[in-house]
Amino acid sequence: MLGAGPVDASALMRIRSLELRARMVVEGFRRGLHRSPYHGFSVEFTEYRQYVPGDDVRFFDWRLYARTDRDYVKKFEDETNLRCHLVVDHSRSMGYGDKAAYAATLAATLAMFLDGQGDAVGLVTFADKVMEHLPARHRPGHLRRLMLMLERAPTGEDTALGPPLEKVAGLVRRRGLLVLVSDLLAPIDELERRLGALAACGHELALFQILDPRELSFTFDEPALFRDLESGRTLFVDPGAVRGGYQRALDQHVAAIGQICRRLGIDHQLLSTEAPLDKALLTFIGGRGRRRRGRR
What we know:
Elements: H1 9-13, H2 18-34, E1 47-50, H3 62-68, E2 72-75, E3 83-89, H4 99-116, E4 120-126, E5 130-137, H5 142-150, H6 162-171, E6 177-182, H7 188-200, E7 204-211, H8 213-217, E8 224-227, E9 234-237, H9 239-264, E10 267-272, H10 277-294
Parallel strand pairs: 3-4, 3-6, 6-7, 7-10
Antiparallel strand pairs: 1-2, 4-5, 8-9
């Protein structure tokens, strides 16, 4: 099922096993990394360069050599491995379309990739409050436990980012990378305040905003009853009458999130659930690599 191109997202979501979905994306992801100028991922951004005589052979990457027949050595900014916490939205709005499965697969892919590098990965799931917390670890059985938590269907209530993100600041005391995976359908002022507080604590932040294609373009044709997944409220809507206003409101919301992230130095990607995950992750890593080099 894995070819030379990116992994098809719609076909991927039909696979029941989250672990298998993640493994397929990781393999495509690694192939993309080896064809790109970005050859590693950690908060210290482990990078690779061509081996030259005299380099410390302890840092020779034999696995990369076996796969690519190219001799690279790792470069480290320091010896501390990455500590990453995935902060995943399990509110009811994530149950629309493939958002929950896509978000879980993205988080599982990152976890599997980082665990394979020897990095510590943790997980926080939330809705209107923190639901589950698995501290960042790198040890046998930890990744499997994290996968089981990600497989649980969204059961929370509304998306209230303020209380859970405030709780995350208390749960994750050691500085590291926090990756927020959510549709971010919450008030902008609340999001800005909480992200600013996390950045002030010294965490590096990345946001993946996940939306269904129908949420992005409102491609509904016939008048119908629409039900709010979080409040349960139903409303009769004529798509033709509201499409323009809806699109403007969504565009303004996404633009405001982008402005907040640029101001705070946060990586932000808006992803349709149709977007290939391996390419999305490669873009993410490339952007973070460029940003870190720009700060040197």
